[in-house]
Amino acid sequence: MPAPTALITGGTSGIGKATAELLHSRGYRVMVTGLDNVADAGLPEDVTAVRADARSLPDIDRAMDQARRQLGSLDLLFLNAGVSRPGPIESTDEDAFDTLFDINVKGSFFTLQKALPLLNEGASVVFTVGAAEVLGAAMTAAKGALLPLMRSLALELAPRRIRVNAVSPGMINTPVYSKMGVSQEMIDSWARDVPLGRAGAPADIAEAVAFLASDAAGYITGDNLTVSGGIGVHSNA
Q1: CA 57/CA 53 separation, integer angstroms
Q2: What CATH code is carried by the domain that includes residue 65?
Q3: 192: which DSSP letter?
Q4: Angle at CA of residue 127, ends 23 and 96, nearest 5°
Q5: pTM summary value
Q6: pLDDT class of 40 with cuts at 50, 70, 90
C-alpha cells in the first residue's frame, strides 16, 4: 500500500510541527505550510515546508499545486493555522478582528475548498478550534465559527466518506505564549488549576489528530475532541 499523505497548515511550530513529526514517524508523507521559520523549522528532512499565508488565496493555490505535485492526493488535511489576539471587546480594533477571522475562519474555509480535489475518498479533515472563551470575545467568535462550519462540512462530505472533525486544545505549552509575553512561571501557575496537574504538550494534540485521522476513528465525524487535561469539568476552570 502507498504511504498515507498529510497536509498540515500552521505546521512549522507548536501543535502543527508536533503533528508533522508524529505522522512522519508513523510512515506518512507530510507537507506543512507556515509563515515563521519555514526554512529552519527543524522538521525531518523529507517533510516539505512551504511558506504560505493562510489569509492569501494565491498562497493557498500555490500550496495546493505543490501538494498535488509532491503528494498526489491527501488522506489528512489538518487545518491548524491560526492566530491569537486575546483581549476584551473594548480593546479589540477592526484590524485585530479582521486578522482573527481572515486567518482562523476564511483561511480554513478556502484551504479546505481548494484541497477538495486532492482529498481521497475516506480522507480525514481536522480543524483546530480550541478553548477560545478564556481569550476574549473576538477570539471566541472566530474560533466558535469553526464548529458549525465543521459540522456542516461533515454532512456535506459524508457521501465521499470524508470525515470532518475538530480538536480543541486546552492550555498547551507552545511558542504562542512566549510571543504574547507569558512567562513559563505563569504557565506553571495556571497549570496548577488543570485537573491532571500540568499544561499540555503539543504532542498531546498530535496524538489526538493522529487518532482522528486513523481507521480507529472511522465512525467519528462532525465531532469535537477536547484535549484539555480536564479543564472545564471542575469549578476552578
Answers
A1: 8
A2: 3.40.50.720
A3: T
A4: 120
A5: 0.92
A6: low
